[in-house]
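Encode chain A's predicted structure.
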Amino acid sequence: MNCFSHRLRRTSPVQGSSSRNELVTSKPPRMNGWSWPPQAFQVVGWLVYSYLAIVSFGIYIPLLPLPWNHVLYSLIGITFIVHFFTHIVAVTIDPADASVRAKQSYSRPMPLFDHTKQRHVIQDLHCYLCDVKVGPKVKHCGICNKCVEDFDHHCKWLNTCVGGRNYWYFFVALSSATLGVFLLVVVILFIFIQHYLDPNSLRTAPQFSSILGNGTWLVFLPLAPIKTTSAGLIILAFVTVMLSITCLLLLCHLLGFHFYLFYKGISTFDYVKMQRQKEARNRDIEAEKANDAKTHNKAPQNQESSIDCEPALSQSSSTCKFDNNGPLSSRLSESICTEMENLKKSAAKQNSFNYGTETPEENTEREMSVSDIKSWKPDADEEAQWPSVKSADSVPGVQDPLGSSVMTPDNT
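Encoded structure for chain A:
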């Protein structure tokens, strides 16, 4: 098989072939977020949710005075319950494309998508791994190993993909978690402040009537009151606030990002593609700038051997500039300047032959130039170096301005 003239699109290994384009070991696709093995973020998320629920409803909300304890029971209770059910639904729903769900092939192995060996597996709305026709907004998830309808992103906290079928459940779960954690932080900060300003306002429950002193507190009211110290209550409040603020920052960042996606009308996957394209363009621009800088640095830097000759034939003298003072360059420069002077004087001869009416000043200048030409003789060295200059030692006849006679200057 010629690997250089054809683009291979094989999606399953061929028996007896050693092609490097073969797929890695197959595995069955994941149905939803409950498929084994669970993600570490998924386990951590459920542990944090359980801890905050226990601390909220068992320790801090019962310490609030009436009627605020009932109000916070209702508000935080609603947010935690909504988050629990929407989280469960988002994890349970299979976000795969309808054609993939129709095959019901989750129990048998399927070729695994390997980004290092395959750039894409969907072409012309056909997935070569799932072997089904898919929609225009479908992407094959390499972790779940299936095509996801209206793919947004793969969420490690849910241990499943977020697509068109479960996106709104994911968004409601995210919003309710943000609101619930915010309310919990407000409650704990209120109790922390009141514990030093007015502790009696937090000891309104009937169970506190049998306890003497303000150093002993009750938790898990009213069903299972347990005694604890004031220091233990404050330390637990501090730990809970730090954990809640950390969760709140992460949740607000994620929620704000999805509001930004709503405003732009794109998905998370579209945003990631745009960022990658932008980074690729920036790398190309930087590479072009680096190439331009290298090109400028390679410009000719040896200016000593350059010759600058600026003959001015229309003027009475010529300008020759030579930067290299070597013996060979010196002889060459003298020869070039001598030739330039000869050419200038020859041109002066030819320019003296004018036809038509002239002013007396022009006639005088012309006669002076002719006399200069007659009186000029090249040096012996110049005659030896430039024998061809002697071919211009004669001047052709000049017609009289009145046209009556022809004047021929004497030979030099």
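Residues 1-23, 302-325, 350-412 have pLDDT under 50 and may be disordered.
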